[in-house]
């Protein structure tokens, strides 16, 4: 039996979240995708707060930058400042191609930055590439345990 790979997608666009989920469901790997609609919910998930008390810590975070309430940059800064969360790899997956967003994301500790293509097939290809690299090539640290 394959060990599941847990991914947290922090994304406020339901269409992008659904497309990411559908693409990962077609994978040969066993990927479990959890979603948060903004940075506040994403942090609550990671910290196992409230309704997320029993959440499985992710092996990887896919993060949009342009989010309501707490945006992706603020979310990333808080994740990197938290000793229990700072080792979780974060892939920024966003529509922004602005150089300032790229530079700032890496400065805040993003592990990589990927611009979302608008074309459906290209988007699916990007998600498959992220999956292939992060789950078959890279050695990931163990996910932190809730309550640890």
| Class by alpha and beta content | alpha/beta
- Please state roughly what percent of the residues sit in beta strands, choosing from under 5%, 5-15%, 15-25%, 25-35%, 35-45% or over 45%: 15-25%
Number of domains: 1
Work out the helix count: 5
InterPro entries: CheY-like_superfamily, Sig_transdc_resp-reg_receiver, TCS_response_regulator
Organism: Hartmannibacter diazotrophicus
Keywords: Phosphoprotein
Modified residues (4-aspartylphosphate): 64
Keywords for this structure?
148 residues, Rossmann fold, single chain, alpha/beta
Question: What do these coordinates show?
Answer:
The structure is a single chain. This protein has 5 helices and 5 strands, in the order βαβαβαβαβα. The chain is of the alpha/beta class and 148 residues long. The protein has a single domain, classed as Rossmann fold (3-Layer(aba) Sandwich). Strands 2-1-3-4-5 form a 5-stranded parallel β-sheet, with helices on both faces. The longest helix is centred in the C-terminal third of the chain and has 18 residues, at 120-137. It is globular. This is Response regulator rcp1. InterPro entries: CheY-like_superfamily (IPR011006), Sig_transdc_resp-reg_receiver (IPR001789), TCS_response_regulator (IPR052893). Residues 6-131 form the Response regulatory domain. Keywords: Phosphoprotein. One of its GO terms (biological process) is phosphorelay signal transduction system.
